[in-house]
Amino acid sequence: MARLLFVVLALAVAVSPRVADASSERGPVVLELFTSQGCSACPPADKLLAKLARDNGIIALSFHVPYWDHMGWRDPFALPVSVQRQRGYARAMKERSVYTPQLVVQGSAHAVGHDRPAIERLIAAAPPSASITIALAARQPPTLRIEIPDLALPQGGAQLWVIAFARSEVRQVFDGENAGHTLHHTNVVRWAAPMAAIEAVPAQLTVSAAEADGADGIALVLQRPRQGAIIAAGQVALR
Questions:
Q1: How far apart are the first and last CA of the chain?
Q2: CATH number for the domain harbouring residue 183
Q3: Is residue 53 part of a domain?
Q4: Mind giving me the DSSP string for 115-134?
């Protein structure tokens, strides 16, 4: 698991009118693509994710996994936390194995990452979520003001993940299954970790995100315990 990157500076349960309004709106649908530059079936899924990411109602993230690196090409974006998160979903969904390209929708269902009809059906059927409001209070170091609206928390609370990403990455692959191809990736996860357990809402947090300096954006994902369904999400651009 990636080490904790953010320090919680404040937590309160006072709600502002802006947060109360947010709870009545449908939040974004989170798409998590588990992909690898060493997987020949992944480039079509990478392209599809780029198209889906253009929808303002979607938070699209590319988690690169390292378990294809033995095929002759080491993915420069692969992170141990990516496969740990993917395996967490496998346990939550009672699946026996993981694969690429796998696209997880709202933390509750999955499909092959290039199967657009199946993915669109899952997006349409995704359980509703709330919007997390994120404001950039300072740039050096990045400091976030986070507001989680009043919503139905599961028993035992929910887990808040922080995910820092690069908006676009392009790499030429020289070996392995994709040798000779130039691959384009969208919203490539560079760091990810659980940040806090949320046991009461509405909540307000101020977070110093110094180790996300250099990323293009941050997504926050609030989900049920043991990496269950996503119940709230939001994102903010850092530059």
A1: 27
A2: 3.40.30.10
A3: yes
A4: -HHHHHHHHHTPPP-EEPEE
Task: Tell me how many domains the chain contains.
Answer: 1
Q: What is the pLDDT, as a whole number, of residue 25?
A: 65
In angstroms, the CA 105 to CA 120 distance is 10
Parent domain of 51: 7-237
> What is the chain's percent helix, strand, coil content, to nearest 5?
20, 40, 40
Q: Give the torsion sign (CA, 221, 223, 226, 228).
A: negative
In the predicted model, what is the mean pLDDT of the chain? 89
1 domain-assigned: no
pTM to 2 decimals?
A: 0.90
Residue with tokens 């079509």: 44
What tokens does 117 get? 């009809």
Which pLDDT belongs to residue 143? 85
Q: Contact at 8 Å (CB) between 198 and 160?
A: yes
> Is residue 208 classed as helix, strand or coil in its secondary structure?
strand
3-state secondary structure at position 212: helix
Q: If residue 172 lies in a helix (H) or strand (E), which one and from where to where?
A: strand 158-172
Tell me if 2 is assigned to some domain.
Answer: no
Q: Tally the residues of the chain.
A: 239
Residue 67 falls inside a structural domain: yes
DSSP conformational letter for 39: -
Does the pLDDT at position 17 exceed 80?
no
